[in-house]
Specification:
Distance between the termini: 7 Å
Subcellular location: Cytoplasm
CATH topology: TIM Barrel
CATH superfamily: Aldolase class I
Strand order of the largest sheet: 1-2-3-4-5-6-7-8
Shape: globular
Protein name: Deoxyribose-phosphate aldolase
Radius of gyration: 16 Å
Active site: 89, 153, 182
Number of strands: 8
Largest sheet: 8 strands, parallel, barrel
Helix content: 40-55%
Number of domains: 1
Strand content: 15-25%
Enzyme class: lyase
Family: Belongs to the DeoC/FbaB aldolase family. DeoC type 1 subfamily.
Order of helices and strands: EHEHEHEHHEHEHEHEH
Length: 222
Amino acid sequence: MDIAKYIDHTILKPTTLVSDIENLCSEAKAYGFAAVCVPPPFVRKAKSLLEGTGVKTATVIGFPFGYSAIEAKLAEVLLALVDGVEELDIVINLVALKNNDWQYLANEINHLMPVIREKGKVIKIIIESGVLTDEEIIKCCELYGAAGIDYLKTSTGYAEKGASVHAVALFKKHLPSNVQIKASGGIRDYAFAKELVEAGATRLGCSAGVAIVKGEQGAGGY
């Protein structure tokens, strides 16, 4: 399967060190991961370490809870763009969603999309599927699919439940074909990663990328 090409090699802990970023980028280059996903203060560092390798630099916006103001998210996006980010993983306002304020969510994405699109960067929207009902997930697929995002992403990894095959399959069924799926949260071994890809995920956000690739090699995957 060559699972490495699906992986966003990720470190987002609040105690991340420069040495952690150096190690992350070194592993990403060695294993041929799709991208690294790093905290916003490390975008410039990761970008410089990965120059010319083909590995993309991603960061998170409104992470991990998503309830920061639209203006705050916009400021985060602008700073990340200045630092050279290529992909932005944006947490939606779950407070708005749980209070059935879909107009707020539409307004939020309509403010953020044009700035990112103007720079030709990739937009991934995180909806935290583990704490949503199927109906809420389907509504998200409809809203963000219509908005024209690049990826709908399952989870931050900070909620009580992360990625699931059920959520990925639901995304696959209800998203337009041009919107891809990123699964993240609790992906720690090759078997689960493979299940998620087979269900429709085209990216996997995980901190255990090296273990997953070694698991595939051990399984005779390549």
